[in-house]
Amino acid sequence: MSALGTPAEADEQRVLRLEGVRKSFGDRPVLSGIDLTVDAHEVIALIGASGSGKSTLLRTINLLEQVDDGRILLTGTDITDPRVDADAVRARIGIVFQHYNLFPHLSVLDNVTLALRHVHRTKKADADRRGLDLLAQVGLADFARSYPDRLSGGQQQRAAIVRALASDPEVLLLDEITSALDPELVGEVLELVRELGASGTTILMATHEMAFARDVATHVVFLDAGVIREQGTPEQIFGSPRDPRTRAFLDRVT
Ligand code: ADP
Ligand code: MG
């Protein structure tokens, strides 16, 4: 028997696979042939200077940007196939952005259950039960009926993470989710990400938090001008980077 399992199992293990992904804005190449694999339960930190293409990479996975070339497989399905239903794909992916993206006119609980009710057609009572349970797990049960502006920035980002997780996505994409927060609020959000990673959530996160990436990521990917220059374990990337561009970047930011 093969230790690699059947092809179907390999597909299941491989949550995301980007193959030769290219994207330009006008005549400016922003992603220049990205090959990247995210396996189940990995926590991948995407690092790189501002403008290196991290957000664009995450946005192509969530089909917020169309790729010019290459393909993206989500658990074996080519989601860049034009015939694919983008909403159905997005329902399988959780994404959280830098700026809190809770709807201000909805309670925290309604924010969390919105996709469950409208995309996944879950009954209100069931969606509310799941939402309350998730909010309780992150210590936000008391805020379920509050509007987002009653929450601190850190609490809002934790609620946004809960909302992204409510539909049980195959992968969680996090785009610099602590960069807009006051420094004293960063810790509680990173702590939640750490717990999610430890409990097996598959995470691909763009981050400026190098100490956090070193501590929590299972794999680190350094993006430089739309190219993956180097990738490896946190120990290798932070401890003994091979590429001079990686070294120069880390010297600047650490
Ligand atoms: P990062 O997240 O690493 O800072 P981005 O993916 O946001 O990088 O941006 C990469 C490059 O693409 C930047 O030069 C940015 O100005 C450009 N860019 C991003 N989005 C757009 C857009 N919608 N139109 C034109 N240029 C864009
Ligand atoms: Mg960005």
TrEMBL record:
Entry membrane topology: Peripheral membrane protein
Sequence ranges assigned to domain ABC transporter in this UniProt record: 16-250
Cellular localization per UniProt: Cell membrane
Pfam families linked: ABC_tran (PF00005)
GO CC, any one term: plasma membrane
Source species, domain of life: Bacteria
Primary location class: membrane
A GO MF term: ABC-type amino acid transporter activity
This protein's UniProt keywords: Amino-acid transport, ATP-binding, Cell membrane, Membrane, Nucleotide-binding, Transport
InterPro entries: AAA+_ATPase, ABC_ATPase_HisP-typ, ABC_transporter-like_ATP-bd, ABC_transporter-like_CS, MetN_ABC_transporter-like, P-loop_NTPase
Stored SUPFAM superfamilies: P-loop containing nucleoside triphosphate hydrolases
Protein family according to the UniProt entry: Belongs to the ABC transporter superfamily.
Listed name of the protein: Amino acid ABC transporter ATP-binding protein
Organism: Labedella gwakjiensis
